[in-house]
Design brief:
two-stranded antiparallel sheet; ABC transporter involved in vitamin B12 uptake, BtuC; mainly alpha
Length: 266
């Protein structure tokens, strides 16, 4: 029982990281109806507003496939720049939290896990408060859901979209900072994390910020328990659990746990 609780706590800590990156994916999707495949790489360089204004804005009215290709190109470009400037040799990254453990109901939880939970919780609450309780957040949501009406009301839609990209980039950077002490610091470190985050976003509902949080926690705990208790599942094979979650959601409940069902006229 102690080991089970310990794995759940570690899964919640990992889930907090996935939730924050999944939230960044949801922010971009709500703004443009696009899954940003460069979100993980953008965690290394906080330049969301610049990228939106220079790269995304000229093609924002293009077909979705074009935008997907652009984000894949961005991921490759940013990854290459990181390797050029910093090299590809893995490096350690210091954690602001101690690796010492504290006893919680008989389970040994590290201060690093508890710190990750706390930081993730604060970030998610701040983003939720901004989107739901501030005029800027209201303008961002209006610009994303009804840009034409927003323009008539005097909202600078283009800048609101840029701000959404900037916010997503900042949230992604926080998740990168939290995961760097756990993984080795190198240009490809976020490629695995983005898969877990995408699974979290799909599970929670790709349009739902709250769903991203719930999905992240579920994915974190599920992957951790699967790696501990399922024979043969561990290390890179844990990615198979994330892919299984994505496939199961798409087959059973395509809109996710909190996603809105698309309405069609008969």
């Amino acid at each position: 029982m102690d080991e089970f609780l310990q794995q759940v706590l570690s899964g919640i800590a990992a889930g907090g990281i996935y939730a924050s990156l999944a939230l960044a994916l949801v922010l971009i999707y709500n703004a443009m109806g696009l899954v940003n495949f460069a979100q993980g790489e953008m965690a290394m360089f906080i330049g969301g507003i610049v990228i939106q204004r220079i790269v995304i804005r000229p093609v924002e009215r293009a077909p979705v496939l074009t935008l997907v290709i652009v984000t894949l190109g961005l991921a490759t470009l940013i990854n290459g720049l990181a390797g050029f400037f910093f090299g590809y040799l893995p490096r350690s990254f210091p954690s602001p939290f101690s690796v010492q453990t504290v006893d919680i109901l008989g389970a040994a939880a590290s201060w690093q896990d508890l710190g990750v939970m706390a930081v993730s919780g604060v970030v998610l609450v701040l983003v939720f408060f901004m989107l739901q309780r501030t005029s800027v957040g209201l303008a961002m949501r209006a610009a994303a859901h009804n840009p034409e009406a927003s323009r008539l009301l005097g909202i600078r839609v283009s800048w609101m979209l840029a701000l959404g990209w900037g916010l997503a980039s900042a949230v992604g950077a926080v998740s990168g900072i939290m995961v760097a002490p756990i993984l080795y610091l190198e240009p490809n470190m976020m490629q695995t994390v983005i898969i877990y985050a995408f699974a979290a976003a799909v599970l929670g509902g790709i349009e739902s910020p709250l769903g991203a949080v719930i999905g992240g926690l579920i994915v974190g705990v599920t992957v951790n328990l699967a790696g501990t208790y399922l024979p043969g599942v561990g290390g890179d094979l844990q990615l198979a659990v994330a892919f299984a979650i994505i496939i199961a959601v798409l087959v059973i409940r395509p809109n996710g746990l909190l996603g809105r069902r698309a309405m069609r006229r008969a």
